[in-house]
Specification:
Length: 209
Amino acid sequence: MSDGARWNRYYEAVRDRPPRDTLLDALDRFSAEGIPAKDEPPPFALDLGCGDGRDTIELLRRGWRVLAIDATAEAIARLLARPDLPEGALLEARVERFEDFQPPACDLINASFSLPLCEPARFPAVWARLTAAIRPGGRFAGQLYGPQDAWAGRGVTTHDRTAIDSLCAGFRAEKLDEIVEDGTTALGKPKRWHIFHLVLAKLPACAFN
Ligand SMILES: C[S@@+](CC[C@H](N)C(=O)[O-])C[C@H]1O[C@@H](n2cnc3c(N)ncnc32)[C@H](O)[C@@H]1O
């Protein structure tokens, strides 16, 4: 079965699900700061591993401009075919992998349950590029997986708590929730999850001096 066909089963299983809590948390923090602002160009978000677009649609609905990428053509086709895609949406959607992606400067990087699927050996360079692209005051929202996750060692990138703290250097952690629990996958299979739910605010450059 191709990657696209495998992911199609996931997209079917999660269709019509609401946006992720980490995205909503980040968007509420931006709203409290007056972003998006009337009479100013819309803020710009990258949605990485967007799937069929549950988060992309929320960003567009709230007045953001979005560049959405996903490794599968099926995800991008589903996103572009969504009936709830707002008319005139400021959306660019591309089939592209994190590993090859050169992120443009942005206000928010959203990566819901996707970045752990980056090739482990390439994750450090990917993370360095992503975090450099976020403007000071901008945010990262998404999930990373820990070593107790059942998929650890099976081609998935994991980080222990110490490594997560290193990844957060240069950010203020507004949300850093570590969850270890026995649950199920979107397809209903039992699985142990070890997840870090993250909302990170990028510190001003002077904080590094
Ligand atoms: C678990 S789904 C999450 C989808 C969506 N963000 C959500 O929260 O429902 C992971 C998505 O990441 C995509 N993906 C996996 N590896 C990727 C890679 N190396 N580069 C870009 N996207 C990737 C998959 O195609 C899939 O759509």
